[in-house]
Amino acid sequence: MHINYNEKDKTIDIKDGLKTQYLMIKALMILNLVNAILNASYISDTGIGLMQIIWIVLGITSIVVLYFYFFKKSSQEKIAVKSIEQLTEKTVFGSKRLSLKLTNGKSRDIVYLKTPEQITNVKKILTKIGITILD
């Protein structure tokens, strides 16, 4: 994972492969949703069975995940500094997770930070360019 500040463009360049992961998740959720629609649309003479209920639940779950990834998460690799509101830090299962809150309402996760030194370096870079850190 590499995070660099481009002074010329006033952007932050994040190279972590998150864009590819999000694309794969979106593609799989769309495929899952199509599969759920096709399987749930078949209703036998006896009515809705257990398999149709399972596919309906899977379809609804896919819709929720797709909404989350399309409207709440960002996978931008070049982020303008003026579009960043703040850096948030959360502790999940004992490990610290960093996320950039953007002005469009989305958040950009900064993943693959393994050591406290890497987290400290990212905080220093973002503090130097004027982004507030919310713990």
Q: What does this entry look like structurally?
A:
The chain is α+β, with helices and mostly antiparallel strands and 135 residues long. It is built from three helices and seven strands, in the order ββααββββαβ. The strands form two sheets. A four-stranded mixed sheet has the order 6-5-4-7, covered by helices on one side. Strands 1-2-3 form a three-stranded antiparallel sheet, with no helix packed on it. Strand 5 and strand 6 form a beta hairpin. The mean pLDDT is 89.
Class from secondary-structure proportions: alpha+beta
Overall outline: elongated
Count of alpha/pi helices: 3
- Percent of sequence in beta strands: 25-35%
Per DSSP E runs of 2 or more residues, the count of β-strands stands at 7
| Amino- and carboxy-terminal Cα gap | 22 Å
Q: How does the major sheet shape up?
A: 4 strands, mixed
Radius of gyration based on Cα positions? 20 Å
Average per-residue pLDDT, rounded, comes to 89
Percent of residues in helices comes to 40-55%
Low-pLDDT runs of 5+ residues are: none
Biggest sheet strand order reads 6-5-4-7
The helix-strand sequence is EEHHEEEEHE
